[in-house]
Amino acid sequence: MEYIKGIPREQAVLFTDCLDNIIASDNEVRLIDMFVESIEMEKFGFASKLNAEGRPAYNPKDLLKLFIYGYLNCIRSSRVLEKECRRNTEVMWLLQQLAPDHNTIANFRKDNQKAIREVFRHTVRIAKQFQLIGGKLIARRLDQTSGSKQQEKQF
Q1: How far apart are CA 109 and CA 111, in angstroms?
Q2: How far apart are CA 146 and CA 25, in angstroms?
Q3: What's the DSSP call for residue 57?
C-alpha cells in the first residue's frame, strides 16, 4: 500500500480546475461579490477619479471587496491582506487574481474611511430589513475596562 502522493512541485500548473469550480456555491466571497457589485460606489462617497496618465488604478469595488473579506475574517493589516491576495484561493476568486500591494490597500483605506464606514452601515440596514439581525447587544468590549494602578498590586 502506498501513501497519498501530492503534485510535484516543479509541475507548471497551479490549478487543475478553474477558480470558480474550487469556490463552493455557498461561500461567503460570492455574497461579498454580489453585494459590492450591486451598490453605487459614488453614492457612498468613494473617490472615483481616473488619471489618463500612468498606470491604471484598481477598481474601488475590488478593494472594497478585499476590505469586507478582511473584516469578516478578522484581518485588519494591509500587509496581511496583501499576502492573502497571493495565497488564499477565496481572495484570488474575489479579486479575479488581482494582487494589490500593501501601500495601495492602506491608501484606499485612508482615502475612503468615511465611505467604507457608510457601506458597513448600509450592510447593517439591509440585514435589519431582511431580519437577519435583531439589533440587540450580544457582546461587549471588556478590554477597555479600567485596571488597578496601584504599584503594590503589580507584578
Answers
A1: 6
A2: 46
A3: P
Q: C-alpha cell of 103? A: 501601500
Task: Quickly tell me which residue has 453614492 as its cell.
Answer: 43
How many DSSP H helices and E strands does the chain contain? 8, 0
Q: Are 30 and 55 in contact (CB under 8 A)?
A: no
Looking at residue 153, its amino acid is K
Q: Which of 24, 14, 18, 64 is nearest to 41 (CA)?
A: 64
Give the model confidence (pLDDT) of 82-101 as tens digits.
999 999 999 999 999 999 99
pLDDT tens-digit series, residues 100-155: 999 999 999 999 999 999 999 999 898 888 888 877 766 656 665 555 556 555 54
**Amino acid identity, residue 25?**
S
CA distance 47 to 27: 29
CA angle 58, 64, 67 (to 5 degrees): 120
